[in-house]
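Hello, quick one for you while I still have it in my head. No rush at all, and the record is pasted right below.
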Amino acid sequence: MEFLTEGIKLITWQDLVMYGVGILLIYLAIEKEFEPALLLPMGFGAILVNLPLSGAINQTMAGIGEVTGIVEWLFKVGIEASEALPLLLFIGIGAMIDFGPLLSNPKMFLFGAAAQFGIFFALSLATVLGFELKDAASIGIIGAADGPTSILVSQVLGSKYVGAIAVAAYSYMALVPIVQPMAIKLVTTKKERQIKMHYNPTGVSRNARIFFPILVTIIAGLVAPMSVSLVGFLMFGNLIRESGVLGNLTETASNELANLITLLLGITISFSMRSEAFVNFETLLIMGIGLIAFVFDTIGGVVFAKILNLFTKNKINPMIGAAGISAFPMSARVVQKMGLKEDPSNHLLMFAVGANVSGQIGSVVAGGVILNLIQQFL
């Protein structure tokens, strides 16, 4: 009967910590509805891979030999070997996004670039704090609040903190409604938050919508070749949507495909959350730097809008700049809600959506730029 208690004897305090982390993520997913499609499978997976002699990861069993664990197999095939899972998710994201508000207000492109400031600030900070360059770059991308990009960049660079980076990225995506309002109020006045903007969209032709994803892919590929897979899959999903002849595929990509890949990605990334690699001081440091990156991305976009207002007659509500991060559509909703709270007659949603979808492009291009830059140094 001793074999029945063998697993209990092998439990370490680090394993217990990970059980607590797993339960916390499940609680946030169910009770608080923070990114439940990802945090719930990540939380359950964190428990799954930290059970002693877990059959979910590769183990050598007495009398049986090497046993292949499904979670480790999914990680090696879907993330480590090919980055297939996060890339396939971009097809679904692209199929969901309407770039119309961005195309009708092209200046919103600027906010998608300005709101990436926190990424490079965090990269520099992590380097100063002693992280290797590839790990620092992977940590910095957390600021985009874009989970798939964070996972992809950290995996391509071979960072040993993939699990912590994934948890931080998706946690801050979920905390957008809490963190962003505080960051916005920190650098704006009430008068600035009350600036009215009148939405007068110009018509966007079908040809423009079709050529846009093709053009973005070509430009991004020439400027940052390492971003081709990131941007390309995102734009391919959008091209399916805008073609108008693949209605069933658009529906499948934006629903069934995106939901299935999200589910698999959540439980697969938990392989990187094994206690021996996750429970350490570096993980706490990564969470802290990731928060700084996220806050500075928000502030970077807001401050950029304030600078533009110094040179333009038609003032921009600086809160629009905060929507330049990649957390679509949560960030746009936050800006809209804050705008209505300051002035019930001020509707900022379409401007914020334009900046927000620009941020989606900006984050994946920033990821590609970082991969290209690090490639030059390593």
